Amino acid sequence: MSIIWVGSSRLQAVNDPFFGNVSLLLHGNGANNSTVITDSSSSPKSVTAIGDAKISTTQSEYGGASFLFDGAGDWLRLQTGINGFAFGNGDFTVEAWIYRLNTNTANIFVGQCDLATAAGSSYVFYVG
Length: 128
What we know:
Blueprint: H1 10-14, E1 47-50, E2 54-56, E3 66-68, E4 75-78, E5 107-112, E6 123-127
Antiparallel strand pairs: 1-4, 2-3, 5-6
């Protein structure tokens, strides 16, 4: 299984022989301050911006825009009950380009949990 978060164009991702295994592909492209988040994977999921999460054209590595999270209750939420995020024992990849303004705190960039109970199988990938 592959989960790839990149800012490069979908055209480049299509050339990836494992593109059909990509569970989530968020470029962060769009108009400044937009909260419309598009999953460009081969099986797109519904993604909702929570809090002040939005697209920003201030910083980007690829494509002229990126996601902006101000660190106060902002995240992207995926629909519930989706497949492709149970890592198990197989190979997987998580990829992201992260520009941090505050390096004094740990920042989670991918995580999964039950928001109502914080119970069950959970994981986080973070930059400390």
